[in-house]
Batch of 3 targets.
Target 1
Amino acid sequence: MSIFKKIMSLNFLEQLLPGCYLMSPKWSTDSRGEFIKTFQSSEYRSLSINFDIREEFYSVSQQNVIRGMHFQMPPHDHEKMVYCTSGSVLDVLLDLRKEGYGKVACAKISKNNRHIIYIPRGVAHGFLSLEDNTVMIYKTSSEHVPTHDCGIKWDSFGFDWKLTAPPTLSKRDEEGLANFDTFITPF
């Protein structure tokens, strides 16, 4: 039996990249609405993941917004858990670790499918918002340190975002990130 079968409130769906897990929480529904548990420390520990949440934040994006590909540099690098509470995204992961450098994975996550992605240190994260007013929740294992904030330019690593129009980008995402082919990884 796989270790993933032992998780109680999360269903393991697939490993997107080594150590990057796509999961679906179990939930209950009644006349009041829904109850969804997104995190339980003991279940992550059963996967040998000691994910200690230090910061949580969320973003609200309009359709065709790209945010990414973001990460923090050591010693302030972090693990991240993301999920969508409104709308939907094409979530994209870029492996910056030496053993998997340049590998890319993606998954659609949405309010409707309730998917959660766990992202280890050394993996850049970004997404394309597929709907207006899409809300993404982020839980991280370290606090944001602006001097160690980093990223790879969204269009520099060969991923096909399947865009039908030019994306909406922040100035940072458009001009302030490294190109993949010149980035030297510390991971």
Note: Residues 1-7 have pLDDT under 50 and may be disordered.
Target 2
Amino acid sequence: MNTGIDYITRLKFSFMKKLYFFLILLTLSTLSFAQIINYGIKAGLNLSTIYFNNSNTAGNYKYLSGFNAGGIVNIEFSNFTIQPGLFYSTKGDKVPVVLVTQNQIASVTTGTNRLNYLELPVNILYNFLNIPQGNLHLGGGPYLGYGVSEKGSVNGKSISGPFTEFARNSDYGLNFIVGARFMNKFLADASYGLGLANSGGNGSTLQNRVISFSVGYLFR
């Protein structure tokens, strides 16, 4: 029985949905007051892992390299920017796997689990420390993600397909961002994605954690 865990999970999801759609409504209601509205593209490196509530194995998990790529709408005001977007983002981790032969000989190898998402972030960035034709910014916001596929490999053997029960479709969480804009067109950001959705089952907790470095270009 995991009634308490399920209730907390539903409560978090309900809160995240309300926060996300509140920011969507805020974005739409402030469009007429925006000073500049730009469209752009962003792409970069993801270093992802999965938080697991089993302390005996948490230290053995390693970061998995991947990527993020997509488009953004850059809605600028005097001191802040609202930046919704749509991204394809890879997450997952590397895990130790023990293989046992028919002769009962055990060996340890590395398995990878790659989760591929379509992700909808809505970030609010505070612009500060103006530089020539640009500024520094920091902020963040919620994201909602939909899993499109899962790929894994162990000992060189690949497995791919739709999301399993172990890695459910939905993902949601918070992004934290720091970065800069140069020449009013180029973006460079570092971010941390704190997944709040529980992708595990049978009482376990698995949540995405992603460090990202990306660059972007705004079309003016």
Note: Residues 55-59 have pLDDT under 50 and may be disordered.
Target 3
Amino acid sequence: MSAVLTVVIVDDEPLARDRVRELLKSHRDVKIVGEARNGQEAIQTITLQRPDIVFLDVQMPDMDGFEVLKALDSIPLTIFVTAFDAYALQAFEFHALDYLMKPFDRDRFSKAVNHAKLQATQRTDRDTSRIIRLLEDIKPKTGYLERFVIKAGETVHFIRTSEVDSIEAEGNYVRLKVGNSSHLLRDTLNKIESQVDPRMFVRIHRSTIVNMDRVRELQTWARGEYRVVLHSGASHILSRSYREHFESVISKPTG
């Protein structure tokens, strides 16, 4: 897993916090971003840091762990850490990820952390997919696609169609060329062609669509074909089968 997960440790006992902190050292993809000694500190720290995971004691002087969770607007993945088994049922009513009974060993702790890592990854993927679906459902005023939304690892890229130089078929994907960079999108060239503005994006080859605003010049090429040169310096072949369509587009007045 490449992303670093953030953690807050909440326990009124210093030795208990030390124990969690020490065991987390072997998990290099986890970063402690805060600690709290009581309920009020826990609420403030969790609200400020918005951690992926919280190790939460149940019994604390001012309020218990359940009251802390009730006070939060957004609840992180929660691993309860306590010396009492009487709260286990209540913990899982709060959708606790795990319930560590003190004293616990390294193996039991690692099992809880690895479970949290898996759940955090799945939560992130679900949230990202939901965002992408919502963005894709937004209908542009023009009726044509105005942005591409591309998930690459832990990053979601937002690329305006006007910034794209060319769109090229590449197996089960299309490659969007944007200046010196490129992005892979799992889709077909035919589908993309049906979504973008045909006055701006023109098919010049069975595997290539170019942005006409990015075309610098047209050069004579061999066998009745032409070379389409973009402002970026990239060039593409205008095949004979798409030449008539290309000429009809460039002959139309703009505006």
Note: The mean pLDDT is 84.
